[in-house]
Amino acid sequence: MLFVGNDAELIEAPDGTNAIQRFRETNPDVVILDLDLPGIDGFQVCSTIRQTSEVPVIMLTARGGEVDKVKGLEMGADDYITKPFSHLELLARVRAVLRRYQLGAVGSDEQPFDKGPLHFNFAAHSVEYSGEQVPLTPLEWNLMYHLVKNYPNVVEHRTLFAKVWGREYIDEMDYLKVHVQRIRSKSGSVNTSADIIANERGVGYRLSVSE
């Protein structure tokens, strides 16, 4: 497991328990997380990190199965690379997740979007549903941003990939499905009747709110 800090310093942790400890000590910019760690595995480490941090997480694994990939994304990973891979591919993925994180962490001076129970504050970079805060990661916030900006229209899958992940991720449908589901789950925990994103099968997604 490696951490990439502000000065590109790499800090290694030999197992899952040590990885969590080093994470808390160093507050890294990116976590590069091997799934097959001794002791506590990468899934558990990622879940623990997500309890307190929105730091970008890239999972590394020798497992190529869709189930492991989806599970990693559901645990909060931002990206997933199957071994073997080149150092250039890893560097490209690191740059990509940092770019998405930065885009999703910057507010703007646009007026808040208020529709029904949804309050989307561009400047404060916050989302509320039924008066309760919805704790989105920067990537999830960026995804919601494009749905809000295009309301009430459907945003095509390929457009969301291009805007949120980059065109090189156009075939990674699991990324989109899992993050949409995470947003639904978070808003649903605030309001159990909430279904904030509607799926237009085979086309894309749209924001689903009403007065």
Structure explained in plain terms:
α1 runs parallel beside α2, α3 runs parallel beside α7 and α5 crosses α7. The N and C termini lie far apart (47 Å). The protein is 40% helix and 20% strand. The mean pLDDT is 87. It is built from seven helices and twelve strands. The strands form three sheets. The protein has a five-stranded mixed beta sheet with strand order 2-1-3-4-5, sandwiched between helices. β6 and β7 form a beta hairpin. The longest helix is centred in the C-terminal third of the chain and has 18 residues. It folds into two domains: 102 residues, Response regulator (Rossmann fold, 3-Layer(aba) Sandwich), CATH 3.40.50; 95 residues, Arc Repressor Mutant, subunit A (Orthogonal Bundle), CATH 1.10.10.10. It has 211 residues and is of the alpha+beta class.
Name the descriptors.
7 helices; Rossmann fold; 211 residues; alpha+beta; 40% helix; single chain; Arc Repressor Mutant, subunit A; 5-stranded mixed beta sheet; 4-stranded antiparallel beta sheet
CATH architecture tag of the largest domain:
3-Layer(aba) Sandwich
Treating each run of at least 4 consecutive H or I residues as one helix, how many helices? 7
Mean pLDDT over the full residue set:
87
**Dominant shape:** globular
The helix fraction, in percent, is: 40-55%
Q: Structural class per helix/strand content?
A: alpha+beta
Reported by name, the CATH topology of the largest domain is: Rossmann fold
- Count up the domains: 2
What's the gyration radius in Å?
17 Å
